[in-house]
Specification:
Elements lengths: L2 H17 L16 E6 L4 H8 L7 E6 L10 H12 L4 E7 L9 H10 L4 H9 L4 H5 L5 H13 L10 E6 L6 E5 L5
Parallel strand pairs: 1-2, 1-3, 3-4
Antiparallel strand pairs: 4-5
């Protein structure tokens, strides 16, 4: 399916969605009912599975998604979103929920860079990034162990200089087939 066809399909559906007032069953406030923010992976298998496996409904939590459920930079957009959820949107707990069989597990930068080149990104552009101080190999590298990755993200969040004391930061890994959650870090105990 081409992008223009998909966009047209989305817009046609949306028009009927609004006309039929189907949005009414999703009405809620911007504040999470369960006062929690979740950082999870953008994996398609988790879209409906994760909230169902955690007994979450529309309006219950703030959800932040990225590849691998990673906090890769303490002052990047992921950490900023977590802090905004805590300071402005009444979140009182943070959950990092990664998953088994993640595409970021074992991801190496080289194949990604080769794919970029195949799709028109020039070697000159990649070199310019390198000369500008961006380590593209490190930036595109995934993780080797999902448990260690969760532990790392929890530590970055918990020890962030702008994170208030007393906010529990939990770490979990979900099975993308069954929805089973494995507790890695209990933020109430740490």
């Amino acid at each position: 399916m081409t992008e223009s066809r998909l966009l047209n399909e989305i817009l046609t559906y949306n028009q009927k969605f609004v006309e039929n007032r189907e949005y009414e069953k999703y009405e809620t406030t911007k504040f999470p009912n369960k006062r929690t923010v979740i950082l999870t992976c953008m994996d398609t298998r988790l879209l409906e599975l994760l909230p169902k496996a955690m007994n979450l409904g529309n309006g219950d939590v703030k959800t932040i998604k990225n590849a691998g459920a990673l906090v890769s930079h303490p002052f990047g957009s992921i950490m900023r979103s977590i802090l905004i959820a805590v300071y402005q949107l009444q979140a009182e707990e943070v959950l990092v929920v990664a998953h088994y069989d993640c595409g970021m597990s074992g991801l190496k930068a080289e194949p990604v860079i080769e794919s970029m080149k195949d799709r028109g990104v020039s070697e000159e552009t990649i070199n310019t990034l390198t000369y500008s101080g961006i380590n593209i190999n490190k930036w595109l590298h995934g993780f080797d162990n999902v448990t260690e990755s969760v532990e790392h993200s929890v530590e970055v969040i918990k020890n962030h200089p702008l994170m208030p004391e007393g906010i529990p930061v939990h770490g979990l890994v979900i099975d993308p087939k069954t929805g089973k959650l494995d507790l890695i870090i209990d933020g109430y105990k740490n």
